[in-house]
Specification:
elongated, mainly alpha, 512 residues, 70% helix, Ribosomal Protein S8, Chain: A, domain 1, 7% strand, 3-stranded mixed sheet
Length: 512
């Protein structure tokens, strides 16, 4: 019987093992199907994400393409506008040439009429002389010798009259030809010198990415923007203008320093008063190097060699100065080309004329002696840096403040007048505005204890920075009133001027 129990046990064990294997296979199959279903769901999700990313990329590329097309259209419209302006200027020049030709024709007709009248007078004089000779010959009591002598005297007087008339005609013809030749040279010079006129303004726009950067530039309670204005001498205008900050100031060099400093500060991300002063000092040094490079490139472009390095620096500074709204460097390059063209037409030294034309306004960018007119100051600088006497005289006499003793001098004078007389080249209002603001700054800087003075807000505010060791709080308060009274007594200005005297104490220590 025991083998029956053993057989039954074995059959039960085999049946249990078979049931276990079948159940395990069913469980594994269910798990596999669940994993496959989960993988399919994740694949579908990734597919939808990729489709959305592709659509967003397509929309971005489409937007960039439309922006590019709009920018191209804007540039084309701007080019077309400049072409229309150039056509208008050429039309005005043609009208002016026609008017001058008409004036020349009228003057020629008048000269012809005068010549005919003079010929008629000469005929009358000849007839009277012949009548007198006949009367003398008919006089009975006169000897033949006396009659001959009188006739000879009359003939001499007639010869002198004819000679004088011939001399007068020759002089008039020479004057007429000289005037024609001078006009021809000036017209040819203007036509051969085609340069664009750059008009500078008093505001620079600094682009930013978002309003968060505006807040960082302003700083806590405005300390960053005050430090930047104190270091550069310009006014930083932060308003509702989207993606832009305005830099206002009459001095282009200060505006450029402020713009470059802002650019470096925004890129670096560290914006605080100490960093601002460090960056402004660094940018100022870089700008000086850039001015030197600009001066060197200008001399190379014009073929002017052998200038002193100090004169080259002054030429580079012209890029950031203006004369009656006309960019000073562009004006000097234009005067140099005009003077060289006129000198070559007259058979003179064109290189010498070009050199004098380039240097004629260097007195405007030098602070050496502000009491001198810029022409005399420029002549003094040219003489100091070993320029030739002809160039020194041309610089000093281009506004007739020095006697001309060189043939190059009147050429530079005329070239300067031609460059400034171009339509739209200069604006008297800008120059008077800059002179007024500069005079206001100089007036404040003349007081003892004043370290810096800046005119901002188009001259409606004057900020004066004084040394804390030299001026007390009471003296600073009194100083603002004194400056206001002096401006009111000595200067002419619209509206009112706010005088702000700033006195601050700094304590600096280093941990080593």
């Amino acid at each position: 019987m025991w083998y029956l129990y053993l057989l039954a046990f074995l059959c039960g064990a085999i049946a249990a093992l078979a049931v276990y294997i079948i159940v395990r296979r069913l469980v594994l199959k269910g798990r596999k199907e669940a994993i496959i279903e989960k993988a399919e769901l994740e694949g579908e999700k990734i597919k939808q994400q990729k489709i959305l990313q592709a659509k967003e990329k397509f929309i971005q590329l489409k937007s960039d393409h439309e922006s590019y097309i709009a920018e191209k259209n804007s540039k084309l419209q701007e080019t077309e506008h400049r072409l229309h302006q150039r056509e208008s200027q050429l039309g005005q020049q043609a009208s002016e040439l026609g008017r001058r030709q008409h004036e020349l024709d009228t003057a020629k007709a008048q000269l012809n009429a005068r010549a005919e009248a003079l010929e008629h007078k000469e005929e009358e004089c000849a007839a009277l002389t012949a009548q007198v000779n006949r009367q003398l010959e008919a006089v009975a009591g006169m000897s033949a010798q006396d009659a001959r002598n009188m006739l000879v005297d009359n003939m001499k007087a007639e010869a002198r009259s004819e000679a004088q008339a011939y001399i007068n005609d020759t002089i008039d013809e020479a004057r007429l030809n000289a005037a024609k030749e001078a006009k021809r040279i000036v017209i040819n010079t203007i036509q051969r010198t085609a340069t664009e006129t750059a008009i500078e303004n008093a505001v620079t726009t600094f682009p930013i990415e978002n309003d968060e950067i505006k807040g960082r530039i302003i700083g806590r309670e405005g300390r960053n923007i005050r430090a930047l204005e104190a270091a550069t001498g310009v006014e930083i205008v932060v308003d509702d203008t989207p993606d832009a900050i305005l830099i206002s100031g009459f001095d282009p060099v200060r505006r450029e320093v402020a713009r470059l400093a802002l650019h470096q500060l925004v890129i670096d991300g560290r914006i605080h008063p100490a960093r601002i002063e460090e960056v402004v000092a660094k940018v100022s040094a870089q700008l000086e190097d850039e001015m030197l490079e600009t001066g060197k490139r200008t001399c190379i472009d014009l073929g002017v060699h052998g200038l002193s390095i100090e004169l080259v620096k002054l030429i580079g500074r012209m890029k950031y100065r203006s004369s009656y709204g006309q960019n000073l460097l562009q004006h000097s390059r234009e005067v140099a080309n005009i003077a060289a063209t006129m000198a070559s037409e007259l058979g003179l030294n064109a290189k010498l004329a070009k050199r004098a034309g380039l240097l004629h306004d260097i007195g405007k960018v030098s602070d050496a002696d502000p009491e001198l007119p810029h022409a005399l100051l420029g002549a003094k600088l040219a003489e100091q840096y070993k320029e030739k006497p002809e160039i020194v005289n041309a610089i000093g006499s281009h506004h007739e403040e020095m006697e001309m003793n060189s043939i190059i001098s009147p050429i530079v004078l005329v070239a300067d007048a031609i460059s400034g007389a171009r339509p739209g080249a200069r604006r008297e209002v800008i120059e008077s505005y800059i002179k007024r603001l500069k005079g206001m700054e100089d007036l404040a800087a003349a007081y003892p204890g004043v370290t810096k003075s800046y005119a901002i807000q188009a001259g409606r505010e004057l900020r004066v920075i004084v040394g804390a060791e030299q001026v007390t709080d009471e003296q600073a308060s009194r100083l603002s009133g004194d400056i206001a009274q002096k401006i009111q007594d000595e200067m002419t200005y619209p509206g009112q001027v706010k005088i702000t005297v700033i006195r601050e104490t700094r304590s600096v220590a280093y941990a080593k």
